[in-house]
Amino acid sequence: MAKKNSGVKFIIYLIIFGVFFYYEYGLYKKYIQDKIIRDRVREEKTREIEKAFLLRDKDFYLDRDYERKLKDLKSKQMIEKSSLSKGDEVIGQ
Predict the structure, then answer these.
(1) What does the alpha-carbon distance between residue 31 and residue 78 come to, in Å, rounded to a whole number?
(2) How many CB atoms lie within 10 A of CB 50?
(3) pLDDT tens digits for range 42-81
(4) Domain ranges of the chain
């Protein structure tokens, strides 16, 4: 009788272990798929950032046109601030 009960217990434990293993294996497969997607997105973003830096002009910050446009923008902002503080309306172009 004891041998029969131990055999039944073994089969029940084996079934429980099988169900647990099946569930964990499904979670593992889902994790692997999500990891692959995350890695692809990370690589894609990294390539986009690298391209952005590589496509930029070599002497971007030494460009005089860039400096002139920056000065013009700053002067426009100063004019707008001064006109707003006086109560004048800003006329947009």
Answers:
(1) 54
(2) 10
(3) 999 888 877 777 666 555 556 667 678 888 888 888 888 8
(4) 1-56, 59-87
Amino acid at 43: E
What is the overall mean pLDDT for the chain? Answer: 81
Helix (H) or strand (E) holding 82: helix 64-86
Give the distance from CA 63 to its chain's centroid. 32
pTM above 0.85, yes or no: no
Q: Are 69 and 59 in contact (CB under 8 A)?
A: no
For residues 23 and 66, what is the distance between their CA atoms, to the nearest angstrom?
60
How far apart, in whole angstroms, are the C-alpha atoms of residue 3 and residue 23?
A: 30
CA 6, 8, 9: angle at the middle one, nearest 5?
60
